[in-house]
Write a structure and sequence with these properties.
single chain, 80% helix
Length: 580
């Protein structure tokens, strides 16, 4: 019951964190930061040779959040890089969030992608997996935008790790495969090969063993052809494990021994797998011999001693030595319990540390505010805030007025179109009557020509009003903006289904007879969309972007429309449509 209360308190404080941090920058912004700058410069000099000392030096700054945004961004980047190098914990998420906002504001895209990756890892450490995935996704988007494929590869790898934590192994495998593509583009062949092994391991977790084997064999071909010797043991270990699962023990032994030969410093996992396969073969003495070797090498993994005890339990159980088997099983259970207790203790300790850090930060802010002798600055700040609110409200009011005027203009335009259309119908009927009358006099001939001119003039004005209504609409502005900002061959359709519906409604208002003819002709949705975009007077390039097709397909679609409507001649599609 201790840890939930700590987490709850931390969340309550974090809700007010951004506001308090902003006040901090205003109150202490004028303070001298020379000591903090000296410590950060000292940490930078230590980075290459003593990364662990970098963490110690930076931790000597008690409240980094109270520094200027530029300095805290620099502090976070240095701290995170050192933590990554020595596999330590990332800075707190609230600190990294401030750094990320600074880099976004300054449009420092390289730093934004890097700090976004560290923020995702910090969220994972806090077990806030949804926030971590959002941070990774944003960082990946930035990395790809600036074509930093190496960074993109690492981000995808961590996204794969996150999917594995959620037991979504197929998605993890796909992310590892994606990371491999980016590593290859970046020329990072070592990480490229590792991505194959990670992908294969994920497929093993869902019992797709032969698919995993195919992927690992491809990794073996790559290390042989490209001479990527640094990760040979990594690939051989993966092949040894998959062959062990497939019960091909000779091949498993071959690859595990090759892995040990390639790297003798980290062989505990290889010996454990060898012990397992010897147990399956029934060679208990050899299995025990491999366990002794696993126990004799230096071990960085805390789970290895528990695994060794479990294997000893299985061997002695096979020998019917139940007393020793029970002893080793108890040792195994004790080791597992110890690891779980340590993990819980670390989680509680980390949560408490973060809570105390935030509480100290907020208390420091309160004391700084209380100790101010002159409150004129705060009054000026409040006045400025009130002024900003007034300006904001005035801006909103002005926008509302603008929208109202625009709506009135649209209503006037609609009324003009309606009146003009009614007048055109009346004059057209009059013209038809004159056509059916025998021209017995010059006077009637002149009257017919005058009415014809009036009809032509009305039709021309009606065309202009209809065109104006479409081209001056908000939809026309949105469509033009999309066609200029979206890149050709975009992966997703630039125009949403809702926007197509809005476009069709607009066309039904302005050109009802045109839409009826198009629908009666049996045009497909894509052909109808092309006709809609043509009425916006867009060129072929813009239409191809909005329809997400190549420009030559636009021309072919126009020809299909003409055939379905039986249109011939050299008149353009726009003129043909508006003259229906």
């Amino acid at each position: 019951e201790i840890m939930p209360s700590l987490v709850g308190s931390e969340m309550c404080i974090r809700d007010r964190y951004i506001l308090l941090t902003s006040l901090t920058f205003l109150v202490v912004g004028c303070q001298n930061e020379s000591e903090e700058i000296r410590l950060i410069n000292q940490a930078e000099r230590l980075f290459d040779a003593y990364p662990d000392s970098v963490i110690t030096t930076l931790d000597s700054i008690p409240l980094p959040e109270e520094m200027s945004p530029r300095l805290i961004a620099r502090w976070c980047m240095l701290y995170a890089r050192a933590a990554d190098k020595i596999e330590d914990e990332m800075p707190y998420t609230n600190q990294l969030e401030i750094a990320l906002k600074y880099y976004q504001k300054k449009k420092m895209r390289e730093e934004e992608a890097e700090i976004g990756l560290y923020l995702g890892r910090s969220y994972v450490e806090d077990k806030e997996y949804e926030k971590a995935m959002r941070a990774y996704s944003d960082a990946l988007e930035v990395a790809l935008a600036i074509k930093n494929y190496n960074r993109a590869g690492y981000i995808c790898s961590y996204m794969g790790d996150l999917y594995e934590l959620d037991d979504r192994y197929v998605l993890a495998a796909k992310k590892y495969k994606e990371s491999g593509r980016y590593f290859r583009l970046a020329g990072n062949m070592k990480s490229y090969v590792r991505s194959f092994v990670n992908e294969g391991r994920s497929y093993m977790d869902v019992d797709s063993n032969y698919l995993a084997l195919t992927i690992l064999k491809r990794a073996e071909v790559i290390i042989d052809s490209l001479r990527v010797d640094e990760v040979r043991n990594y690939v051989y270990n993966g092949l040894g494990n998959i062959f062990n699962v497939l019960e091909k023990y000779d091949l498993a032994e071959k690859y595990l021994l090759k892995s040990i030969k390639e790297d003798s410093s980290d062989t505990a996992s290889d010996y454990l797998t060898l012990s397992d396969l010897e147990q399956k073969r029934g060679n208990l003495e050899q299995a025990e011999n491999y366990l002794q070797k696993a126990n004799s090498v230096s071990i960085d993994n805390d789970f290895v001693p528990a695994t060794i005890a479990y294997h000893y339990y299985k061997i002695n159980k096979e020998r019917d030595d139940y007393k020793r088997a029970l002893s080793f099983y108890e040792e195994y259970v004790a080791a597992e319990d110890s690891l779980m207790n340590i993990s819980k203790s670390v989680d509680i300790y980390d949560t408490e540390q973060k809570y105390e850090h935030l509480k100290l930060h907020n208390e420091n802010i309160r004391l700084l505010l209380k100790g101010q002798r002159n409150y004129t600055f705060i009054l000026i700040l409040l006045f400025l805030c009130a002024l900003l609110i007034i300006v904001y409200l005035a801006t909103i009011r002005r926008k509302n007025r603008s929208l109202l005027k625009q709506q009135e203009k649209i209503n006037t335009l609609n009324q003009s179109i309606y009146q003009l259309y009614a007048e055109l119908r009346r004059k057209s009927d009059e013209l038809i009557q004159l056509q059916n009358t025998q021209y017995s006099s010059v006077k009637m001939q002149v009257e017919y020509e005058n009415v014809q001119k009036e009809v032509d003039s009305l039709r021309s004005r009606l065309f202009e009003l209809r065109e104006s209504k479409i081209l001056n609409s908000n939809l026309a502005k949105k469509i033009k903006k999309i066609s200029q900002t979206v890149q050709p061959n975009h992966s997703e359709a630039p125009v949403s289904e809702k926007m197509w519906i809005d476009i069709e409604v607009l066309m039904m208002e302005v050109y009802p007879s045109v839409i009826k003819v198009l629908k009666d002709a049996g045009l497909s949705p894509s052909e109808m969309h092309l006709c809609f975009l043509t009425l916006f007077k867009l060129d072929s390039t813009a239409i191809s972007i909005l329809l997400n097709i190549i420009p030559t397909s636009v021309d072919r679609t126009r020809l299909r429309v003409r055939k379905k409507l039986n249109w011939e001649g050299k008149q353009g599609l726009y003129e043909s449509l508006v003259n229906i």
